[in-house]
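Minutes, methods subgroup
Present: GH (chair), OT, SY

1. OT presented the first of two proteins processed in the latest run. Sequence and C-alpha cells recorded below as shown on screen.
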Amino acid sequence: MSDPASARPASESAGWSLPWEGGCRCGALRLQVTAAPILSAVCHCRGCQRMTGSAFSLTLMLPAEGVAITRGETRRGGLGAALESGCAGPAGIAEAEASGAGLPPSAIDHRLCPVCGSWVFTRIEALGGMVNLRAPMLDEAAWVVPFVETVRAEALPWVVTPAPHRFAGFPGPEDFPALAAAFAAEGARPGGAG
C-alpha cells in the first residue's frame, strides 16, 4: 500500500491552529497533536460499531510522529488483542476469519486507556506510519467533520453524514493522494476555516 503521508501537500499546516490537546474519558491519558491531519473519516464497519458502541467511529488520520502521549499510557485492545490472548469468543473468531480482502485483526493495533477503556487511537501498519486518532478524544472536537466515509456497505440504514467521499469498503491505495489533496483544500478546520 502506498504511504498516505507521501500525499500530504506542502500547505498541510495552513489553518490548523496546532497543537491540539486531548485525552481519554477519565483523564488518566493525555495526548498532544502537533501535525495536521491527512483526512477525517467515519468508518461504518461492524468492528468500529462494536468498539464505539455507536453507529460509526470518527477519525483523524495523522502522521504517527504528530501524536504524542503526554501523560499515561495505552494498552492494546479490540479483536486483535482478544485473539492474541485466546479470549475471543465464537463471534470474534468468525469475524476474524471473514475479514476477506480486509486487514486481519492482528494488523490493526487498537490502543485504549488502561484505566477507563476509552478507544484512543489505532495504528495500522499497512498505512505506513499513520495513526487514526478518535476525533472525540480532542478537547476541542466540534470542528471535526467527516470528509470520507468507509465501509458504507455496513452502515446502519438511518446514518447520514456530510462526507463528500463515500466508499462501500475501504478506499484503495490509489485513492489516497487525491483524497488527501482534496481534504487539504476543502476539509474542515478549527475555527471554521477550510
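2. SY then presented the second protein from the same run.
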Amino acid sequence: MTATDSALTGLAQGWCALSLLHGRIEAHIERALQAGHGLSVREYSLLDVLSRQHSGPGGHLRMHQVAESVVLSQSATTRLVSRLEDRGLLNRYICDTDRRGIYTDVSGAGLALLAEARPTNDTALREALTEAARTPELAPLVAAVENTPAGEGTPRAQDGQERSRTAPPA
C-alpha cells in the first residue's frame, strides 16, 4: 500500500463517518418532527429557510437558491413547495419588479407550525448529537458541529446576506 492509498483510505473512512453521522441525525429528527408535528425534515428545513427571508435587496430567494439551501433538486423543491402551499403553509406570489419571478413566503399557519416544531427539532438534534458523541469515530465530527459558529455553513451566510424574519406580504 502506498502513502496515497493510505490517505485515500483515511478520506474514505472520514466520509463514511460523516455520512453515518448525517444519517443518524436526520433519521432522529425526522421521527421527532413526524410524530410531533406531521413534518418531514425537508419540510421543516424549507419552512425555516423561507422564514428567514427579508424584504430588502436580495432578501427573497429564487427557487434554485431555495433548492440549494434545502439540498434538493430544483424540481423536488418545486414539488415540496407545492405540497406545503396545498397545506396552507406557504404562499406564492409574482415578483413586483420582474413578472417572471415567483417568490414564496411562509404563511401565518406555516410560521405558527414552524414555531411549534422548532423546539422539537432542536431537542432531537441535541439528542442525536449526544448519542453520536458516544461513538468514538463520530465524536470528533460531533465536536466540529458543536463548535461551528452560528450562521456559518449556510448558503445565505456564505453569500454575506443578512437573514432575518419577516411576515409574508399582505
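Chair's summary of item 2: The CA atoms of residues 63 and 69 lie 10 Å apart.
Next meeting: continue with the remaining queue.
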